[in-house]
Design a protein that fits this description.
- By secondary structure, this protein is α/β, with parallel strands linked by helices.
- It has a single domain, classed as Rossmann fold (3-Layer(aba) Sandwich).
- 29% of the residues lie in helices and 20% in strands.
- It contains four helices and five strands; from the N terminus they run E-H-E-H-E-E-H-E-H.
- It has a five-stranded mixed β-sheet with strand order 2-1-3-5-4.
Amino acid sequence: MVKHFSRVNHAVLLIGIGNEHRSDDGVGLNIARRLKKLNSKQVVIAEHNKDGIALMETWKDFDTVIIIDAVSSGAETGTIFRFEAHTKPLPANLFHYSTHSFGIAEGIELARTLNQLPPYLIVYGIEMVNYDSGTGLSLETNEFVQKVTDLIQQEIHSLFHT
């Protein structure tokens, strides 16, 4: 049975996922770093650039987890996808562009199978344009990063104030 929260009384874990050496693939890391600067005692920020299977170790002490990652689906650059991964599987075709053989969709499903999924798991996927080698986000991506950051801040705020 899925546990639904009307109010969070503990810290939220926010995990930024990506590879900052593959341009826009670092968007999850970029947003996590922006949110870290806010110094919220209610939010623990983690950066993740390992296989999806390592997520279980990262979130093991948290009931509420938000993940941010780049996606490549063919949608318009900047499209924001939001999934309640604690209720149903992620569409694997969105999170297939990984430098690891075991991506986050597979890691989440393994955790679900092993009964190690956090009770409340939200995944944000942001459609990217550039996965080439190189550091720094593309100009197109920089245009909407603050919008996504604000959206996630609102979600976190609503967890504590509903």
